[in-house]
Amino acid sequence: MEKFDEQLLILYASQTGNAMDAAERLGREAERRGCPSVSVLSIDEFQPIDLPNKEAVIFIVSTTGQGDNPDSMKGFWRFLLQKNLTREWLKGVHYAVFGLGDSSYQKYNFVAKKLDKRLSDLGATTIIERGLGDDQHSSGYEGALDPWMSALWIMLYQKNHKLLPSGPDFVTPDATFIDQPKLQIIYHDVEEGVPPLSSAKELKYLEMQLERARSMTPGKFSGNDRPDCFLRMCLLVSIVVIILDLLIQTKNHLLSRPDSGKDVSHFEFDAVSSSIDYEVGDVLEVLPGQSPAAVDAFIRRCGLNPESYITVQPRDAENHHFLNPPLSPVKLKSFIELTMDVASASPRRYFFEVMSFFATAEHEKERLQYFASPEGRDDLYQYNQKERRTVLEVLEDFPSVQMPFEWLVQLVPPLKTRAYSISSSHSAHPNQVHLTVSVVSWTTPYKRKRTGLCSAWLASLDPEQRVFIPAWFRKGSLPPPPPSLPLILIGPGTGCAPFHGFVEERALQSKTVSTAPIIFFFGCRSDKDDFLYRDFWLSHSQKNGVLSEDKGGGFYVAFSRDQPQKVYVQHKMREQSMKIWSLLTQGAAVYVAGSANKMPSDVFSVFEEIVSTESGVSREAALRWIRTLEKAGKYHVEAWS
Q: Quick check: 578 and 479 in contact, CB under 8 A?
């Protein structure tokens, strides 16, 4: 008896939404090519025990951090690693893997590579060689996805004609292919009133609106809709404000020299909604506020009523368990402010395709159709991603387009939290959390000035405004070390942020218990311009401080631009080769944080060199030694692009 179904199953594991977009595009293309049954699911919506019963499965998976699985894939991956699964468990199952990654990271597309190998080890048969999308490609990940998809249809047809009964080259004409949006908007007459003037009730109202709005589109957001807490920041060192009967005394301190080309600040926050708890090495996720002017302009451009109350639900709502209990209405303007990134993120390719169906000006329709076509891919990338055009800017460039709000809710990129390494010790600052934030700014190829949404928003907060900041705490890649563990820290630039917390905590611990030494390698451009936390590091490197040589530690700074030859943290590490090896032989743990470009791999190479030189073994043996260090949980990297 035939045990396989004839459905094409597409599973995606996405952290930022790219893999979901790629999977949904793959699903649409399969339907256009006459595939009788296509299912697109987030991998955490699929029961892995059912995998042996599938005929054909396409995996679209992203790699996060330093080769990590997306959150949605962690349970699925744990299941696949079970030792009781045999080498014939997936015999007869055909699969394909496409990965989304960034080749500037050391473990490029690591998740796709290990998934491909594991599926093969369990007996599954590959349909096509895995595809690897690269953010560094001139067309982004689509530069690899387009040719991979074209080859996929041919190979899929060869494996099973029933999946593409009209052949691999058949395509339904685009002009007839515009489906209903996946979502429906229900408008409500009931007015819930304006938020009360009391700060406590205003905060509760914001929490309610946020949880309601984000729960209405559950596929777009990972994690908990309800923040762990709300934070409050004041921009003056000495300002004191009473909110919710709590004393708020926080500050914003510029760390870099004004006009130095860098804009790095130290921000301090107090929790105003509940007590907070975190460990050094943890990460704070912040939901940024959007420009009120931009939100209002979007609402006007789309002809929406900001005061109406809405609920958003899937068109096939009866099949979705999260609608029980029924959703409560939320104000339309609040929904946009809290869930839709209208003035920062660039829309996806499908956004332009759907726009083309609603364009009434012929020249706009033709241009949008071209952008959505394979031939227009590179030009779209230049117009859209390279320029970082926002949804609002794109809509203003095509004034004849009037998209229904349902399509906008489905296709506008979600407003995502931004993650920052925490730079404080909770033991040293109870109920406070500190961040080290570089205000991101750049110029596009066509000379447009851009700034990072969250960093610029944090830096612009007015102390006179009552701004509550939704925040979530999560574990990062840097586990908190016990006081007895020697540490080798490498953190150039804002990579020093988590180690500010490490040193604060170790200094506090040293008052009551014996602590192991720390050596810290910091790097920046110039002593005068961007020596972040200068006084802090120097104070702890003197007078028996936790970074002092008296305690077996050390603090070493590389100023890359203060001399004719550039000096980086790698050079300072070589100068302290014997000291590093001595600490490693004492069981020290290595922590690396900072830019993901070349720094982590360069630092890794220097460790190889040091181990080889100081122990007298070959580079190959040194590499194996460091890999053992990694497996033992004593080599940690947290890097960001």
A: no
CA distances for 501 relative to 52, 373, 498, 562, 634, angstroms: 47, 50, 5, 28, 18
Considering only CA atoms, give the Rg of the chain.
27
Annotated binding site for FAD: 388, 418-421, 452-455, 640
- Range with lowest mean pLDDT among 63-72, 368-377, 382-391: 63-72
Helical H segments across 262-412, by residue range: 292-301, 332-339, 349-358, 362-372, 377-383, 391-397, 405-411
What is the rounded CA–CA span in Å between residue 223 and residue 474? 10
Instruction: Give the residue carrying structure tokens 């961040």.
Output: 435
Q: Where is the binding site for NADP(+), in residues?
A: 494, 560-561, 566-570, 602
Q: 43: closest CA among 222, 215, 227?
A: 222
Work out whether strand 125-126 and strand 94-101 pair parallel, antiparallel, or are unpaired.
parallel
Summarize the annotated binding site for FMN as residue ranges: 14-19, 62-65, 100-109, 135
Model confidence at 322: pLDDT above 50 = no
Residue 572 is predicted with a pLDDT of 96
User: Which residues participate in the annotated binding site?
Assistant: 14-19, 62-65, 100-109, 135, 388, 418-421, 452-455, 494, 560-561, 566-570, 602, 640
Question: Model's pTM, two decimal places?
Answer: 0.86
- The pLDDT, as a whole number, for residue 246 is 34
